[in-house]
Amino acid sequence: MKHQRQKTVEIYLDSPTPFMIEHWEKLLPDWKVPPQTIVLILLKSQLLLEGQGELIELEKDRLKERFLAWGEVFQATSQQRRFLSEIISPKDGTPQYSQEGQLIFDLVATVHHALGFDFSQTAGGCKALEHPVWQTAVYPGLFLSQATATAVQSILTEMVWK
């Protein structure tokens, strides 16, 4: 019997959502043009995330730190190549390197629009994605870039995903 390592990260490149295109100046007031490519990073959680409690919050914090570490590498590599990019905080939907806008990014809505994943409201008022395999054990992250999908794919290929 073969042992297969379970995939813990899924990465999807897509075009910005219609909401992002329509409202980019209120989402990213520093930018002169809207983003051209978005990168959805889905991290598999060790716990179902629709509940509440200290363990779930610790798991969300762990996944957020992992995502932001990758975001730093993505940001640095993008800058080296002279591509404007941004990392959106999974916790509050705000940009990490640009000025905060009048609107925030809704990562669950972005995944829902791009990939068709359902979501539900949690007792705490948050939204929980429903991954087709991982159920609610999924934590979304978002990178934005003014580069083409091909250029972004090249950056992602260079990154070490641990």
The ordered H/E elements are: EHEHEHEEEH
Total helices: the number is: 4
Strand order in the sheet with the most strands:
1-2-6-3
Share of helix, binned: 25-40%
Which overall shape is indicated by the principal axes computed on the Cα atoms? globular
Mean pLDDT over the residues: 91
Note the main sheet.
Answer: 4 strands, antiparallel
Please indicate the percent range of residues in DSSP E strands (runs of 2 or more): 15-25%
The CA-CA distance between the termini, in Å, is 26 Å
| Tally of strands | 6
Radius of gyration: 16 Å
Describe this structure in words.
The relative contact order is 0.24. This protein has helices spanning 18-27, 54-80, 107-115, 149-158; strands at 9-14, 37-44, 85-88, 118-121, 127-130, 138-145. By secondary structure, the chain is α+β, with helices and mostly antiparallel strands. It has one domain (12-158). The protein contains 4 helices and 6 strands, in the order βαβαβαβββα. Helix content is 35%, strand content 21%. This is Methylmalonic aciduria and homocystinuria type D protein. It comes from Aphanothece hegewaldii CCALA 016.
Task: List its traits.
35% helix, 162 residues, disordered N terminus, single chain, two-stranded antiparallel sheet, alpha+beta, 4 helices
Brief rundown of the structure:
With 162 residues, this protein is α+β, with helices and mostly antiparallel strands.
Write the layout of secondary structure elements.
Elements: E1 9-14, H1 18-27, E2 37-44, H2 54-80, E3 85-88, H3 107-115, E4 118-121, E5 127-130, E6 138-145, H4 149-158
Antiparallel strand pairs: 1-2, 2-6, 3-6, 4-5
